[in-house]
Amino acid sequence: MMRWWISALQLLELFVSSLVHLLYGFYIFSTAVAGDLSQSFSDWILKPNLASGLKEDDPENSTSVDGLPPIVLVHGIFGFGKGRLGGLSYFGGAEKKDDRVLVPDLGSLTSIYDRARELFYYLKGGQVDYGEEHSKACGHSQFGRIYEKGHYPEWDEDHPIHFVGHSAGAQVVRVLQQMLADKAFTGYGNTSPNWVLSITSLSGAFNGTTRTYLDGMQPEDGKSLKPISLLQLCRIGVILYDWFDVPWLKAYYNFGFDHFNMSRKKISIWGLVGCLVGKNGPFASGDWILPDLTLQGSIRLNSNLRTFPDTYYFSYATKRTRKILGVTIPSGLLGIHPLLFIRVLQMSQWSHPPDVTPPYKGYRDEDWWDNDGAMNTISMTHPRFPIEHPSHFVVNDSECQPLHPGIWYYKIVEGDHILFIVNKERAGVQFDVIYDSIFERCRKHAFRKTPTMPNEVHHQ
Question: What dotted CATH number matches 60-208+296-318+381-447?
Fold first, then answer.
């Protein structure tokens, strides 16, 4: 009898979670459509001279070799860049705070590896090359989207970039920097980690999250999915979305799996069946983002990633829990988005299955209870597992001035996982405080000293 009650509660929780996520997705989509219709109506009424000046998305206008280093904002899971969802901004309009900001549109559910490759070619230009070995192993095309002209083709060690990544976007940038160090891009033999001037993380997914297991990842391997789960519903929806391949819909929002060729124009109904039953596609090969966000997947990634001595690192870890009499609970009702409240509660009570090998030596459940509804706070401060990287906890920004490269400076902010994206009104004054400090740090405190040239040496 007890087993039936547990199963009924699990199905009820799945129904509620699915409904909340579906409604929020519809809200975001409808908000973007309404905003675009309103803008189109205004343009039609006012009839501005659209021919004057250059297009806003023209890469030639994005940055200047002689100007300041660009700041690149990298979105997280289910995110989108400039040009998707119409005029809606993933970063809540933060990109307007500086004249040298780029907001790339990467795959919203593609793997950390694939997104890092896409980000490189978005900046340098050319056709995205996922690598022959990786593409064969994962069952997708080696080549992807073509960027006729990169958004910052001058990018090199003399013209480095500041990166700001939210959630999984922070780990994407770390993987990209390691690829630059490993000279992993064919035809680019001069890449180095010094192409990255600074990395700032907002709720960064450095060490994985226990939420992946609550959503449906198997804690036994961190790769496979539970038969009945939120992620199974997500998987089916994404496959159908890509198979029907409605052009205007895909142009408006894309999960990023075009290189897997799941469109009805490329595979038959039997190909669709193959994807749905798990024989083909990204969910069969594991080349999508959720396996990278499990504790095991993050440890696998981190084992090959370094913190480099000439790059500045800063992170904001978010937390929406507190402890009362030793028990971790959500810190209030009103301050947590409805999309995240259930997960804040569940993550604060997470217990690793006793019959499953812990993800690392010394693992303790209580270390992972503080969270923001999507990520565990311990995961967001700095890379910790399998090896802890140099770090410094910051209470006041003045404590870390001047900044030193090669160290992860981190702050803990009271907020949930989506506090600083999409809707700036939710964050209130904190939105401007956080982003203003990020942009000021990039412009005034994180810089690389230019080496003295021989003809500039002053003889006493």
Answer: 3.40.50.1820
